[in-house]
Amino acid sequence: MTEVSKVSAAETPVATGRWAAGEDPAKRTQILEGAKRVFMKMGFDAASMNDVTREAGVSKGTLYVYFANKEELFTAMIETERAAFVAALRVALEHHDDVEEGLHDFGLSFISHVTSEKVISAMRTVLGVRDRMPVLCQRFFNGPENLRTVLHAYLTRYVTSGELEIDDVDLAAGQFLDLASGSFFKFRLFGSMPEPPSEAERKRVIDGAIRVFMAAYGARHQELA
Q1: Residue 56 CB contacts under 8 Å (≥ 6 apart), including other chains
Q2: Superfamily designation of domain 78-225
Q3: Rounded to two decimals, what is the model's pTM?
Q4: Between 169-181 and 147-161, two packed helices, what is the crossing angle to 10 degrees?
Q5: pLDDT tens digits for the chain (225 residues)?
Q6: CATH T-level fold of 1-68
């Protein structure tokens, strides 16, 4: 068997030039984009697979080839959105050579994302189905690659270079995320802050978070102490 013949249908179109049933990535994306609009507008319980077929512009038969039910479709949509944001932050951090600059950009992107209407709506929807779909909630907040693991890798780089002195990097990553979110996330999630924080407010919180974080873990600060 040649190497070409070993490639799965999920990776390449079949010999006719068409994708095998349920394997076309463009069609899958089309369905997920339609599902996202439906779920964000109607919520999980009110939305139906028929709503998704209309919004995505596909037949019901096509939809069920890709996703067996509404729960599977919703899980895939949430996972796709989360993974895309995490990947974007990971790539952005890789291009920073200054630890504080990286934390600044990471923090601003993080707080802008988690307080956006789209993400707040998604989180409320996920929390609304937590009793029926506990695994979804776990994956939403703690997927195999999440913000904490991305930040962990970034901080480890500077611990290795000697610019940070951290005994428990996982703890430090969680602390920075907590500092960066401030009270904004809770206020937005529970409805006491109707709009996302302003750019000036986001910057004020992130600048403060970095000062506190570097005072605790920056090698320069520990030498002065």
Answers
A1: 30, 31, 33, 34, 35, 63
A2: Tetracycline Repressor, domain 2 (1.10.357.10)
A3: 0.74
A4: 120
A5: 443 343 344 444 544 455 555 678 899 999 999 998 998 888 888 899 999 999 999 999 999 999 999 988 988 888 888 888 888 888 878 888 899 999 999 999 889 888 988 888 877 877 777 777 777 666 666 655 688 889 999 999 999 999 999 999 999 999 999 999 888 888 888 888 999 999 999 999 999 999 999 999 998 655 544
A6: Arc Repressor Mutant, subunit A (1.10.10)
